[in-house]
Amino acid sequence: MSLIRVLLAIFFPPLAVLGKGCGSFVIVLLLTFCGWVPGVIAALVILNNPN
Known about the structure:
Layout: H1 3-11, H2 13-16, H3 22-34, H4 36-48
Subcellular location: Membrane
Keywords: Membrane, Transmembrane, Transmembrane helix
Transmembrane segments: 29-47
């Protein structure tokens, strides 16, 4: 996980997981609309997953 991805996950979570697939993007986007913190947490968890 690079520093740029982490910063992107903090400031705009859906954009950080765009390369992980459409499903991840939609989930993080919905969580970000519900609240900024759930979106950031989901983005960081998805970025930490090696798969």
